[in-house]
Amino acid sequence: MEEPFNIPVGAGKKSRNFFSKEGLNGPLMYLFLLCSSLFFAYLIAKFGLIPGVLILAALIGLPMVYGLIAYPRFGIVVFLASAYFIMFIDRMGVDFPLGTLMDFMELLFIVGFFIQQKSQKNWKIFNGPLSIMILIWVMYNVLEVLNPFAESRLAWLYTVRSVAFIMLMFFVFLYNIRTREFIRVILKLWILFSLIGALYGLKQEFIGFNAAEEAYLHSDPNIEQLLFIGGTWRKFSIFTDPVAFSYNMVMSALLCIGLITGPLKTWKKIVLGIFAATCLTSMLYSGTRGAFVLPPFALAVFAVLRFNKKVLFFGAVATALMTIVVFMPASNQAIVRFQSAFRPSEDASFNVRKYNQKRIQPYILSHPIGGGLGATGTWGQRFAPNSFLAGFPPDSGYVRVAVELGWVGLLLFCTLMFMILRTGIINFYAIRDPELKSYCLSMVLIVFALNLGNYPQEALVQFPTNVYFYLVAALIVITRRIDEENRELTEPVKTAL
User: Mean pLDDT in the chain?
Assistant: First the structure.
């Protein structure tokens, strides 16, 4: 009779091999670990830290690669956390291409997606109008490599990663986020990350910068010119700059406000309110005027979508308080700068932006597909420093799109943003589940605020906003999908009863 697999020959004898439970706790394993430790110590002593770093990278990196592909939900959590803290790690002096690491993670997600399709085919996520529009936008950016007006192909290569390929994460989120329980995990982590960012911004304001941040602030005269205003430093917390800091605080505050409308216990709503207030308070110290106007306008949208007597009352109170804050005399620099955001005609920087936009209009009209992706800003100055667009400061997400991708690209981009917002509003009214409805409402508020904020600043190109924006877009679709799936499960039962 044939012996069963993994059953040793010989009755009554206990199996022991190197990878069995007994083997892992036996002397062979201890001997293996001892020899490995001595070998690694010899390599480091002989050749320096490089072999040790490579070994450590292999021990950590290989399981991480496997985890990202085989367990995409684990990978999504890691990716979202990495996007939030990547710039803080970079500023602390870590000499590693962290941006390339994020690109590699995105590639692993795409590979994992196609591997999953072999066993769980589901191409329906590409059928919706929003998915089709995103694919059109990605393809348009890819085809920009053929733009005859582009001064540099390398500028396109460096830019397409952050404005097009990152959008493919929309499909990764859409495919792998399938339950409300996982949405809860993501949103709780998001709130935790944002609270860390808000508290660190307050630490910079009331305690000061650390040594690495001080070195960064004084590393370039241009940085000091941008961040030292009115005798105080603009705060940037764990983010790239004050703009990314302030916009992420607005996003997090609106997330908390939207969640308050859900079926939560009173103490949880109070905690969310405190978190929202903490984020908005910390935002003030960023000194970013473009962010200051976003909460009031987003709350106006909130009042329209959730229109009732209670919302109308609180809206009237909030409007009165906002009017008092805007027009009251103040000596605090943060409040003065906040007030100036609602009087743009008195802002010199705003007038400079208006002038720059006016003088670039003839170029936009004469170049329907633009001057090439990456033609302005950092990459334009690096790869085509003598070009006309290299010295142009776009100072606006919409202006950058119009200059680099032309009025055709601007039309596509605005259509995409409109479709995301339209889908969110339609889904908000269609969803019946109160919890999912509050999630969708939060996402709509965030999309509206970021689109408004994309005019005075570039709101969608820096970590973590560029990642979380497409998470938000995906959640708008996912919440309705889960709601409809739940209704299909419950309504036949009610009919039968």
Answer: 83
